Amino acid sequence: MIAIFASCKTETKSNTDIIPKPQFIEPLSGQFEISSSTTIYAKSSEAIEAAHYLHHFLRDHTDLDLSIVNKKRSKDQIQIETTKSHRAAECYQLYVNDNLIQISAPYYAGLFYGVQSLRALLPAEIESFDQSSNQWVISGVKIDDAPRFQWRGMMLDCSRHFFPVSYIKKHLDRMSRLKMNVFHWHLIDDQGWRIEIKKYPKLTETSSWRADYESLPWGDRPTKDREDGRRYGGFYTQEQIQHIVRYAQERNITVVPEIEMPAHVTALFAAYPEFSCKGKRLNVPTGSLWPITDIYCAGKEETFQFIEDVLSEVMDLFPSKYIHIGGDEANKKEWEHCPDCQRRIKQEGLENVEALQSYFITRVEKFLNKYDRELIGWDEILEGGLAPNAAVMSWRGMQGGIKAAKMHHPVVMTPTQHCYFDYYQGARDLEPLAFGANLPIEKVYEFNPVPKELNATEANYILGVQANLWTEHVATTSHAEYMTFPRLAAMSEVAWTNQENRNWKDFQKRMHKEYLRYQKAGIHYAKSAFNVNFKTEYNEEKKVNTIILQSSSLTGDIYYTLDGTEPNMQSNRYSSPITVDKTTTVKAIQIKDGQPVSKTTETTVYVHIASDGVLTHNTIPSSKYPDKKRSLLNNCTMGTQTFTDGQWVGYEGTDMDVTINLGKVETISSLQSRHLYNPGSWIFLPASVSYEYSMDNKKYQSAGVVRNEFTKEKTPIYYDYPLILKSPIKARYIHITAKNIGACPDWHSGKGQPSWLFCDEIIVK
Fold it and tell me: What pTM was computed for the model?
């Protein structure tokens, strides 16, 4: 284990706030100032390349134009050297004292990362392009560093929304500063084909464009063909792709293209319908498409010839070891009825369409292997049997990755709950439109990509980790930046820094300078981490609730009110948990130097008769959204519209059936249960909620039934089922049943599939 020195020898104020955190970093005395007289020493070709990168960076961001020389001197010099070593390819050492800055590594990758750490040690103003005169002073430090994982990736979906080459280059620059080294480029999906294939020109003439309904929400867009003068889309020429690949290589980033198959290819069939099962020309979808039944025909030899032609041009453009073929969410219903696919199943002696998918993927893999390339795909490629040499990108949780690693296949961990940057970062009502789940920065940071289920040998098959930004709801580069930062900083530390060297509070402290860098660089980053969050705890002994106020980025002081007014510096300053013994609304804000650094957030604690009750589940909730010992259903805290916020209890295809023991006989005048409606995530309201009461938990009487009178919408909302009693009743036990509709309704894309029922607080007054 590499130690992190806590002591500090510096005589001046040190700055070692590097992200991602190095494996070993020791502050030293003294400081070095980069000035116009400073030279850069480099001799080997790798060192000269790194020196040129540093030279151009300093020239573009400062008024310095340093000379690159091949002779050493004893002071006022940045020395970049290659060293003989059998250590990891990306390792480096950085040493700074009063006279010299020394960066050494066995390969260019390490030298480049040494330069990035040097950049991180400079004042945050270095990120701007204003050419302002400044003192570029670096505190003395010693760093010995190497990454934890070899795959440190970021995926950008350019199919759902198209981003210009200029933004792709910015994205690569920002990745490289955080020592991320794989750019997974999602170039093909149902809503657009984004890569030029010269042998098939209609892919860019037709499949790259869709009718322009960008003014409508993603889920409300019609399925129509593009119209003259009203189209949306674009594609990357082969020359542009070659330029981007070279640009990435200079920053030690490998570009891994994703060429989707066998599904997520509807756009393709707008140009070449003959490669589908039905052979019918389709429109390029303008928005949401589910279920995805359009699929390559696995029975036609022409299909595989087309795929091989496409992949041949892809391999000429991308020198990466891995080619990503997607493989996810393949609805195989068309294969079940396609005579060509059924003939293939019979000829190959396959058992079913699941085995046909394995045949499809394996055949593509053999083609790639012939050219010394390797196939990687989403974890659905495990279905029907994994191709012999394939690598797995595990997104539906960790289980696919665990299974593949136990089979000794390479794995990249990218589970939705930690790695999907299209999720909300904070309270839905304070954030721009995103996918329905919630992924704050601290949840990104807590991720450990190596599951406990793997032994030491199996763990070696975890190549690394990756963040993914799907862009159904991300139409602009500004929004893409917002969804990426600051979460990419947390992911970079997950990917680079050894688990034992990571610490959330230390990371929070180092992020203060990171946020300043975003401001200087003009990055439109999310401020969600500054908002005040609320955590409610129950004191069993005192029978009271306490509210803890906290922030993912505490840079100032928290002020709060309990009377519904807007908080300011004249309000209560938070110092310890707030005790609440009645229904109370808390509003809070974070203020620094007299100015708000967050939006106002609020929560209401609902204290009611059932707050002290013991709740029993007569039907067991899903293990994906379970209840807790102190039940979420009567813990006085309401969930948000984000169903993954830890306050909702979920039931898949089953009713909610619970009993609450109030502990003593109470007089009751009203009952209420709150439920969630989020059709995009297959969450529907109960058909009805029935309330019963009893004195002995044996003989129950009906208090009433509340039926669903809600009209369908597309946006998530809460919905209460209140029952106001005509006259009060006395009871010790309350029995509540919420009737699940059972299956997604006919109008829904998941028609016939089990529906979800979510409940939060049951309030008894």
Answer: 0.90
